[in-house]
């Protein structure tokens, strides 16, 4: 009987999707700092994606959204995020599972991630990713510890990460 191998490719993709979730969580709590802005490409027909029918018809395979100046109500959950964007001056609520994301980029710091779409059966792995504490939980912890805030550090410059070396061929 052949032994199953560890799926490092899946582990790495799951961890990197956690980067996307963490970035979106920070933006949901504090807004976009400086010149940061995000391009998110996702599979529009992926299970759990909720977009208006006219957008699904216009983008039947993939759709790219930009979070920069006009986005509203960004909410980050364990396995998806929700955001309201304006399309032809009409506000529309989008629900996008992390497993549907194929590309995440922040051009302001030359950072990008590309993903293989998650098979819906594997989306439980995405939902099981550890989450960051919310702003309220952090404030409560900070109040308990009563420590002064750390001085602001210079943000590290991003880098493009390719997963080709880890993919099973």
From TrEMBL:
Residues 126-169 are annotated as: Disordered. Pfam families: SspB. InterPro entries: SspB, SspB-like_sf. Residues 135-159 have a biased composition (Basic and acidic residues). This is Stringent starvation protein B.
């Amino acid at each position: 009987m052949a032994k199953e191998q560890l799926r490092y490719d899946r582990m790495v993709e799951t961890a990197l999707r956690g980067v996307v979730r963490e970035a979106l969580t920070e933006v949901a709590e504090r807004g976009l700092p400086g010149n940061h802005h995000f391009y998110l490409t996702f599979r529009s027909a992926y299970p759990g994606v909720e977009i208006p029918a006219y957008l699904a018809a216009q983008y039947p395979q993939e759709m790219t959204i930009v979070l920069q100046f006009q986005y509203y109500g960004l909410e980050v959950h364990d396995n998806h995020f929700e955001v309201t964007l304006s399309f032809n001056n009409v506000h529309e609520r989008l629900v996008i599972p992390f497993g549907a994301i194929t590309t995440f980029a922040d051009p302001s710091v030359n950072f990008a991630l590309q993903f293989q779409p998650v098979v819906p059966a594997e989306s439980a792995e995405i939902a099981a990713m550890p989450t960051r504490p919310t702003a309220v939980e952090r404030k409560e912890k900070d109040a308990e510890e009563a420590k002064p805030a750390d001085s602001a550090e210079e943000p590290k410059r991003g880098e493009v990460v390719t997963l080709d070396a880890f993919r099973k061929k």
